[in-house]
Amino acid sequence: MKISDKLLQVKEVHKTYGKEQNETVALKGITFDVLPGEFLGIMGASGSGKTTLLNCIATMLKPTSGQILLSGKNISSFKGSQLAKYRGSKIGYLFQEFELLDNLTARENIVLPLSIHGENPKKQELQLQQLAKQFDIEDILNKFPSQISGGQKQRVAAARALISNPSIVLADEPTGALDTKNAKSLMQKLSSINQTDGATILMVTHDANAASFCSRILFIQDGVIFHELRKKVPGETQNFFYERILTVMAQLGGGSSNVL
Amino acid sequence: MFFDFIKRNSHKTRKENGVYFASLIISIIAFYVILSLGEQDVMLYLKTVESDAVARLLLMIPMLYAVSLFFVFFLVYFANKYQLQLRSHEFGLYLMMGMKRSKLFTMIMGETLWNGLVALIIGYLH
Lengths: 260, 126
Prior knowledge:
Distance between the termini of chain B: 32 Å
Domain ABC3 transporter permease C-terminal (chain B): 64-125
Oligomer: heterodimer
Transmembrane segments (chain B): 20-37, 57-79, 104-125
Keywords (chain B): Cell membrane, Membrane, Transmembrane, Transmembrane helix
InterPro entries (chain B): ABC-4_Integral_Memb_Prot (IPR052536), ABC3_permease_C (IPR003838)
Strand content of chain A: 15-25%
Membrane topology (chain B): Multi-pass membrane protein
Shape of chain B: elongated
């Protein structure tokens, strides 16, 4: 496989918070690749560094050492308008707490990334309608965030993350603030977009249920990759994959050697 | 869209922070009352009766002026700082969605100018 085939390459990324005595090591050298069209899940206990890793990819944090390459370009070297362009058109970010703007309607929230870039939102109307249909939010497009439910908010946020056709969608525990029913429907929609439109999704989660929708899962423990699971396609059912995830999760805490 | 956005944001700011704007208005009124103390009818009348004492009082006006300017300055400064701090999350979101820093700056300036214009119109009408 050629290097250019890999969409995202994370090479030996280290991240340390604080200085000298207060140093906390969050990432201790993480290396992995993401291929186009993949639905990659990252799992791990809290404090294992999974959100730090995602924020490094999203350029919210700078890794202490190591490289993150998107389509062969080192994203930690981006500055100014290049960085703004990367954030606006190459990545879509899905937050745990939705982060919709209260004084904009659902429709305006979705097209916000486009209007920030000065694009004519009318031109994107077709895409907006398509995304609204995929996420089942057509009838709430003109409502404000305070008038819609949490599940709908996250679906609006997902449409916003996808409107600019990003190379990769980064999701930080997108189901964390949702109930099981809404979480399931969101994951089904994300997974169908991944399969039909070939959108690459990188999701951090600690919910085994949500993770069972992924095609590959990395388990992180104490800042290093601990295990990797791959869904066997075709053939493996989601239920069976879910069972396998649970088995690994049981090992994450140290397995039976840690049972008191 | 961009200007519409600015207008709506500043409207929200005015609505949610009425207390701060009210306290700003009161402090500015107080500031100008002190400033115009020498020209007020009461003072002009008192000057004819108790010219010595009033002259001494009016001597203190520059000091009062300086002190109240000091307070108004810090009130405006902290009110704005509080505003920005309250919205830092929102600004971070704009940056995350690919807004350039210069555009964010223009947006905040635009909102402030718009708010100032509204305040000016209110002041002029009164």
